[in-house]
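hey so i finally got around to running the thing on that chain from the lab meeting. sorry it took forever, my laptop kept dying and i had to restart like 3 times. anyway pasting the input first so we r on the same page abt which one it is
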Amino acid sequence: MFTDKANSIFKEVIEKYHVIDTVDQEFSNPYDSKSQAIEHLLYRKCWIDTVQWHYEDIIRDPEIDPIAALKLKRQIDASNQDRTDMVEYIDSYFLELYKEVAPKASATINTESPAWGIDRLSILALKVYHMHVETIREGATAAHKAACQKKYDILLEQQVDLSTAIDTLLSDIENGDKYMKVYKQMKMYNDDELNPVLRGGK
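ok and heres what got predicted. didnt touch it at all, straight out
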């Protein structure tokens, strides 16, 4: 199953990040971009998500310096752009993979592309990791650990369900029962011509 590979790589990324556990650490992708294209994309995608997860923690510090917060907001904006770019790269991989498949006359479209499902799976892997940390965190109360264990169990169930749904979608596309139709991002706030604030600055 495709998601066995994806979940394994996501776990690898998250564990690698937390060895040093800082948003400023150097990134290195162990997978070759040509011979291991999808592995390379999945690793990069989850690394972006993992760094952004910690950006979001930092910016919620009530004592954060306003100048630092503004800088961090710009980093989060850039990370969001990288994230959506990676989703498009992953969808492009699947479009190429299934380009010879002729959809059946009865084929239907899904509510989201495979890569957007994979995006949610990557973020879910982060939730699983961090919720598990809370179940064993030193100094946490027994009540806190028990509450987090319940949430952790639900997240694991959700991970199985989402993985199954993604694998089913990919199988349906491969068999011609579903077809892919990808809309490129139409974000307006980063565009000098579409964002009135940026346009006005010209």
